Amino acid sequence: MEPSSNAMPATSTKIAATTGAVPESHSVTKRLQNELMQLMMSAPQGVSAFPESDANLLVWAGTIEGPKDTYYEGLTFKISLEFPQNYPYFAPKIKFVSPMWHPNVDMAGNICLDILKEKWSAIYNVQTILLSLQSLLGEPNNSSPLNAQAAQLWDHPEEYKRLLLQRCQED
Questions:
Q1: Which CATH number fits domain 28-169: 3.40.50.10380, 3.40.640.10, 1.20.1250.20, 3.10.110.10?
Q2: Active-site residue (options: 79, 112, 116, 151)
Q3: Does the annotation mark 168 as catalytic?
Q4: Tell me, what's the pLDDT at 70?
Q5: What is the model's pLDDT at position 18?
Q6: Read out DSSP for the chain?
Q7: pTM of this structure
Q8: Mean pLDDT by 10 residues, the chain (171 residues)
Q9: Residue 134 in contact with residue 65, Cβ under 8 Å?
């Protein structure tokens, strides 16, 4: 009896088993597909994110609306999300694409948020990231600023709002 032509050659099986390439990329894809479905079925108010293309589930674009009763109310910000091949065991890289003025966001859009760095956990997902970023807009960590001027002005509403709106118009 001849071997089936559909069978994977033994050497390919060994390579896949030792490198983990096939199963790992498949599990990342499956996880991101599940997270996308969760967002589409029950997206929280004021946040959204979707893959930029059907061809690459590792790169997403998102939006965050400023929370009510904050300096950011009425404003919407674009973000980029890049997931590593070993997601969810390592955090995605998130940046503000829209110009942002915030104590924990530098002028290039980089974000200082503990759950995206040392406090990352595989239990977090896109939805928890988006909600954490939205929450950060109203509750910055001024003791660890990336934008020292924004941190200093946080308690000066008129000047803070003026500089925020000026920065947002740079788009």
A1: 3.10.110.10
A2: 112
A3: no
A4: 97
A5: 39
A6: -PPPTTSPPHHHHHHHHHH-HHHHHHHHHHHHHHHHHHHHHHPPTTEEEEEEETTEEEEEEEEEEBPTTSTTBT-EEEEEEE--TTTTTSPPEEEE-S---BTTB-TT-BB--GGGTTT--TT--HHHHHHHHHHHHHS--TTS-SSHHHHHHTT-HHHHHHHHHHHHTT-
A7: 0.83
A8: 40 37 70 95 92 95 97 97 96 98 98 95 96 97 94 96 94 65
A9: yes
Phi, psi for 145 (deg, rounded to 5): -80, 145
106, with CB counted inside 10 A (0-12, 13-18, 19+), is: middle
How many residues in the chain?
171
pLDDT at residue 171 in the model: 65
pLDDT of residue 170: 84
